[in-house]
Amino acid sequence: MSIAAPSNPKEITLRGIILGILITLIFTAAQVYLGLKVGLTFATSIPAAVISMALLSAFKDATIQENNIVQTIASAAGTLASVIFVLPGLLMIGWWAHVPFWPTFGACAIGGVLGVMYTVPLRRALVSQSNLPYPEGVAAAEVLKVGMASREGAAEGKAGLRAVIWGALTSALFAAGAAAKLLAAEVSVYFRTGSGATAGATGIGASSSLALIGAGHLMGITVGVAMGVGTIIAWGVLVPLMTSLTPAAAGVDAAGHALGIWSKQVRMIGAGVIGIAAIVTLAGLAKPILGGLTSAMETARKAKLEGAVLDRTEMDMPIFIVGLVTLIALVPAGWLLASFLQGGPLMSLAVPLVAVGVGYILIAGIFAAAVCGYMAGLIGSSNSPVSGIAILTILGAALSVGFVGRSVMGPEVAQALIAFALFVTTVVLAVAVIGNDNLQDLKTGQLVNATPWKQQVGLLIGVAAGSCVVPPVLELLNHANGFVGAPNLDSISSEPLAAPQALLISTLAKGVIGGDLQWDLLGYGVLIGLGLVVINFLLKKFSNDKYSLPPLGVGLAIYLPSAVITPVVIGAVTGWLFDRAVERKVGGESAKRIGVLVMSGFIVGESLFNVALAGLIVLSGKGEPLAVANSMSEGASMVVALIVGVAIVWGLYRWSARNGEAVHQK
């Protein structure tokens, strides 16, 4: 479907900027909560595009390019929130007790601006002159085209907005039921695997979370199967084996035994799987990335020599502006790092540490942005192994700052070096994820005849808005819940958020600088990861790339709690079954898109409810302000949660199918 492009269409408008910022604020808050709970985030481009089209349809002069700018601004939410994969580590090591606004805002904003700048020169090589598939960028463009090109598309846009609202309302109510103790927060079962002194233990849990069901649907069946395999490896093999080798202490039940061994030993094996899978993935991308960069420079040289006049749809930010903004951004980056060290035990090393930090942000940032941008084109931004980039970045940062600080090493100095490494990694990760997002958005723009430089400006607006939201939401959740592994001296609730990625990153930083990393467990994980890499290679080869088993997905399932992974796997399977059930029916494609939006609503509704609940916890000073006294047993509340959850998911899938058919008939 082609879209006619006026010579100068309406793109950046005041109403579009305001709408994009409002969607960014909402989605960033949702993403921060989801990332802290499960260590995963979701792509916001498609739901943002649908909301934009439904609301801007009230204006007759709204264009597809204007809607594209709105989704470009809002997409910053799905990416910039990924800095919470690192930042809570500063709370976990006891460096911060609270999340300060300006250092956090500065790290997000500076990294985000550099992420946009670093990927501007890559657009031609990796987008307009590339055959990379950009699955999510293409999907967002198709949603925009369908929504703007026909009456049927307009009807689907309105149905899509209703889908987001219904999904959000039902998931918020379901989460409220769990907060009120009317539904079990988790459905789980743990048991002994044998008898006597060598008896092991294992089990399985599933969080009562529609957001996780939605996340599984959006990730797809391939990632879902990989996570299912990881769950079997963790809880079907490693936990029973290692609990049998480590007898339980007196009075410890099956759940305590299994969860204790998993948290202390099995998840470190999972960290090894994640690390090696990330390194292998990135190594495989080295050749195409270098080829793409070479092509970009050659194209730019030819265009300059031939004096070609560029079409509007090929106009990036001028390279002079890109270079100038990059250099200017390094000044506040240096000031930010220097102020981070102010008054601490590393003051005597401030100059060399700041120099190393700025140099690392510059060089590692360019590398991370290029790699992440390429991965967005290859597998989509949601599936990009950003955690792998974070692992490699923290290892490099820890080694670099550890080398500078080795002459004054001591307990306080070690903690300060770990904190500084985490802070530098936060900036580099912001560079990486925004670079990831920029190229995906530019692909969407290419398909709807947008102007690249206007999209790049739009993303900078999104970076600024998202950077304002991350610090207060993070501090609110810190004060209300706190995080696993942190002192949480000022937290009210007794149920800290897992923040699994930040826990992994801070553990690696402490291990590298302190020299006490559990290399044996990481080594076992590396061996398992290499085996998975081989299996994935063979599976793709013999199925002609039809099937795969992403090692990173398997590693995440070993590393993350089963309570988080199980509903994600269920969501992936039910989403696949739903898509297969409707694909041959009338309006099947519309039904699929509406189903995606319902699932996006699940994530937004539950996440925003829990952010609001955190606010209520802080205001009331009570850990469970909504809890209602009732006589239900734990088992009964699990059954109720299961029945209500199944009814909601089944009912809204049916609603999606009916609406897809109704849209097609209009």
Automatic annotation (TrEMBL):
Domain of life: Bacteria
One GO molecular-function entry: oligopeptide transmembrane transporter activity
InterPro entries: Oligopep_transpt (IPR004814), OPT (IPR004813), YSL-like (IPR045035)
Keyword set, alphabetical order: Membrane, Transmembrane, Transmembrane helix, Transport
GO cellular component: membrane
Coiled-coil intervals, chain numbering: none
Record protein name field: Oligopeptide transporter, OPT family
Organism field: Duganella aquatilis
Upper classification of the organism: Bacteria, Pseudomonadati, Pseudomonadota, Betaproteobacteria, Burkholderiales
